[in-house]
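Dear support,

I submitted the protein below through the web form. The confirmation email said the job was done, but the results page showed an empty box. After a refresh the structure appeared. I'm attaching both so you can tell me whether what I see now is the final result or a partial one.
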Amino acid sequence: MTVTGEALQIISTSEHQGELQELIDWLNGELAAVKIEPTELQWTILINHLNEMLKRSKEQEKIPEVDPEMFSEVSQEALSLAEGVVKRISELSQDEMYVLSIHFETAKQN
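What the results page shows now:
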């Protein structure tokens, strides 16, 4: 896993720095196990998204509802990875899983 200076800045300035780093480390292992390797830019965007998810979890905020049909092209593998993240963070709506799955689906194409 290679991260940019921008990604490191997101981590270092996060209100939930320890949890974010743990989540990134765990997710890196999950992605490696299924041979998905995000690019540096994809990691930066993903880390920012994970940080925002942690904030929403802590502040009990919800994202707008999404239509699961919009994600019918997303692989079960990407959805499973996203579901794992949502369960690990907890206190998030199921809609988060669908939005997050796009990161993994995109990284699969690398």
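Response: this is the final, complete result; the empty box was a page-load delay. The CA atoms of residues 56 and 62 lie 7 Å apart.
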